[in-house]
Design brief:
- The chain is mainly alpha-helical.
- The chain is 45% helix and 11% strand.
- A two-stranded parallel ribbon has the order 1-2.
- Strand 1, helix 2 and strand 2 form a beta-alpha-beta unit.
Amino acid sequence: KVLSEQLGGGYDEWIIGGMLYAGAMKVDVVNMSLGGYCSKRDADCIATKRLYDRVARFVRNQGVTIVAASGND
């Protein structure tokens, strides 16, 4: 678990760190329910999305299944 109940969310760094940890520990499944908004014109947001894509690819290559909720922003 990487998100804060007190904050009602968390930071990209926490989520990416958790994903990398799951890959290193070779857990079976990572279950994520995330929401947010990324403008196609925001270079930082686009770079963060690309980082998520790379991390997800790495984690899947470690044999971890990634499950994400449907319907979140």
